[in-house]
């Protein structure tokens, strides 16, 4: 059988950096993580409307009209309640008035609702870097990634989570576009708040170091040591962990996927 590159996302990197043993339980052994929330229907509709707003506009005039914004919204509301339709429209209109109108012209993004993919080789293993973005804008000196946040009670991500995301996305986007990721902006659609992070070489070095450590553990399957902390109290796998329980439960039998690691041999 042919070996494949090991799939790696910012979410997986965060999980590994937080606790290698929890990472093993979820991604290597195959234990499922309980789902905590249902699908955010309104959020999905807002993301779809904003994607259409940018994707399908003809850009022959400086700004789209209110009619165009309504047209994009009405194509996304079939699964919403009347209250959600009204609330979503108010959110879209606020976005239009604060993010687009003040610029005097709606800039065409480089891409919308796309996938991030790249490859990196660390410690003899090949990793496929993956992720998603809502919008990607061109800057004079590189790229800006826009991430829409539509939750009712938005939270700014923890610094270590953002740092890993910035490093991974920077590596992958440079391979795809030949440009450096300069910043990541989180747009909180319900409040209109924008939080921006600059991207540095240190972010790339940090993510490369975490990937390198993960590679060593993948090659030495016995060394998935726990990293204890506050996260243990909320860990979905605590009952299986000897660092938390004096007598941990035996791991349930799961149908494990056959892992094929892509070894990169220098010649």
UniProtKB/TrEMBL annotation:
Pfam families: PDDEXK_1
Molecular function terms from GO: helicase activity
Domain PD-(D/E)XK endonuclease-like: 8-241
Keywords, alphabetical: ATP-binding, DNA damage, DNA repair, Helicase, Hydrolase, Nucleotide-binding
GO biological process terms held by the UniProt record: DNA repair
Keyword Flavoprotein found: no
Annotated InterPro entries: PDDEXK-like_dom_sf, PDDEXK_AddAB-type, Restrct_endonuc-II-like
The keyword Membrane is assigned to this record: no
Designated name of the protein: PD-(D/E)XK nuclease family protein
Organism: Adonisia turfae CCMR0081
